[in-house]
Structures are given as structure tokens and as C-alpha cells.
């Protein structure tokens, strides 16, 4: 430690949730939240304005998600250190986050002290994984059925996430500043890589791999 606190950009679309994280983080004498954001676009702007030591990034946000925000921030600053803090305890989300440039991944069901420890590790450019994600990543390496999803780029994965969220081609195009034709090309490429021919098959494929919850399935907070 040099005496200067670790400066954090907190990104989550829920204001109440951000306030809870801020209070937790700022109880630590060596951590400081210097800025907050509720979406990917603002997160990129705030990163450029504040140059934080660590970005604590949620994945599921309206419009462009956290994975694309990580990709964009890392394109602007290859040394950016990003810790994903997400409800998703799924190997596909974790692998896509790391592919986009994240340094750590902690689930929101983890003990609070684990988040604090992970922030400190990532600030030192050390990887940080909660046990839950370590286990699913290890299990994924023993299976072959995750390889198709791993072929998707971070941008393709974010577009897939929005397709599964029932967003229209025009809404996706606006979120990513792309033409509808380009989004349609991405849509086709995603289905081709996953080996499905229709959107309903795409949904069933994502259900089998845990990206979509069947109706009636419990939702984790």
C-alpha cells in the first residue's frame, strides 16, 4: 500500500444495490468509490473521466451489458482492471467476461468479505475467482457441450443476451450503434456457430446451457 486508497468505479443498474455496495466498500480504509454508473455507455465515459484502479462491473444491465462494457473499456485502456460482480454463476458468462478482459469474477451470493478481497487482488493485477465460479469453470473443462458457446465473441454473446431478452433488431442496433442489417448478420452468425436454424431452437439451446430459465424456475436475487 502507498497510503492512497484503491479507487473504484461501481457499475450496476440498480441504485439501491450500488448504495449497498458503496457502504460495504467504503467501510474499508483502503477502498474508495470515486464514481458510479448504471449502464455500459456511462461506465465507459466515467472510466475515461476518473481513471479508477478497479471497475466493479455487473453483467446484466439494460441495453448493452457489462461484457461489452468491459471490451470497450479494455480497448481504450488495455491496462484496465475489471472485476465482474454478477448474479450469474454460469461458466459461459464467466468465460465471456474473461475473454472480454475481466481480471476477476465474483457472484453476488458470495460473502461480502470475498468481494472486498477480490477488489484488492484485482487492483494488484492478480486474478480473483469466488469458489462457485472456480467450480463451474473446472466442471466446464470436463464437458464438451460448452464449446459452442465459447466460440461466440463477446460482442456476439451480448447480442445473444439481448435476443434472449426479446429485444428487437432495431433496439439492438440502437444499443450498439450498428445498422439493423449488421445486427441481422450477427444474429445469423450466432445461430450458425451454435448449430441451430431457428430462434426457438436458439432459446432451447440456451435453456439447456443455463442462459435462460424455464418458466417457473426460481430466480436468484
Description:
It is a single chain. The chain is an alpha/beta fold and 221 residues long. It folds into 2 domains: 6-141, Rossmann fold; 147-208, Arc Repressor Mutant, subunit A (Orthogonal Bundle). It contains 11 helices and 6 strands. The chain has helices at residues 15-26, 40-50, 66-76, 91-100, 112-123, 131-141, 147-150, 154-164, 169-176, 180-194, 199-208; strands at 6-11, 31-37, 54-57, 82-86, 104-107, 128-129. A 6-stranded parallel beta sheet has the order 2-1-3-4-5-6, sandwiched between helices. Helix 1 (15-26) links the parallel strand 1 (6-11) and strand 2 (31-37). Helix 2 (40-50) packs parallel to helix 3 (66-76) and helix 9 (169-176) crosses helix 10.
Offer a quick outline of the entry:
The protein has helices at residues 15-26, 40-50, 66-76, 91-100, 112-123, 131-141, 147-150, 154-164, 169-176, 180-194, 199-208, and strands spanning 6-11, 31-37, 54-57, 82-86, 104-107, 128-129. With 221 residues, it is of the alpha/beta class.
